[in-house]
């Protein structure tokens, strides 16, 4: 994978950011790759039909709402038309390939069917064990309401907090659940 930012010369910045926010350096790397993968999605035809959801989306798109290390990308695919299972499966594979472009991918076979795809994704210049991101794409719940939100890497947040110039490379927009939905889910499941 050819990466305009990441190379071994940036280990010092990664270590500084990791120390500053109190996470392992590998968490900073995974976070960077998650934003890169979301950039792949946002630069594709699937940007408006996939909704980023779950804890990682909450921590990335609503900073300060929860304290969580980025480990996965959990997406809901919303087709624009009715699809057979076969077409649905093909569409999910195309979304998966789009997001993982430039990365290595290992499918998680026991978590795959026509309506759900799971895989581990990691950059070829990194260790699978330390930098893999779990990518899950499915259709189980319609994610209403949702909106487009910005997300930043830990590196971007650090550079901004320190008043340093930074590249747009560290920031991306994505479609995600609205914060209201997260609170509704939390209240609903605590009551029942």
Features:
five-stranded mixed beta sheet; two-stranded antiparallel sheet
List the helices and strands and how they pair.
Elements: H1 11-21, H2 25-42, E1 50-53, H3 54-61, E2 72-77, H4 85-99, E3 104-107, E4 117-122, H5 128-131, E5 133-138, E6 146-152, H6 154-161, E7 171-177, H7 179-191
Parallel strand pairs: 2-5
Antiparallel strand pairs: 1-2, 3-4, 4-5, 6-7
What does this structure look like?
There is one protein chain. The chain is an alpha+beta fold. The chain has one domain (8-191). Helices cover 40% and strands 21% of the residues. It is built from seven helices and seven strands. The chain has helices at 11-21, 25-42, 54-61, 85-99, 128-131, 154-161, 179-191; strands at 50-53, 72-77, 104-107, 117-122, 133-138, 146-152, 171-177. The strands form two sheets. It has a five-stranded mixed β-sheet. It has a two-stranded antiparallel sheet with strand order 6-7. α1 (11-21) packs across α2 (25-42). The termini are far apart. 30% of the residues are buried. Residues 181-185 and 187-192 have low confidence and may be disordered.
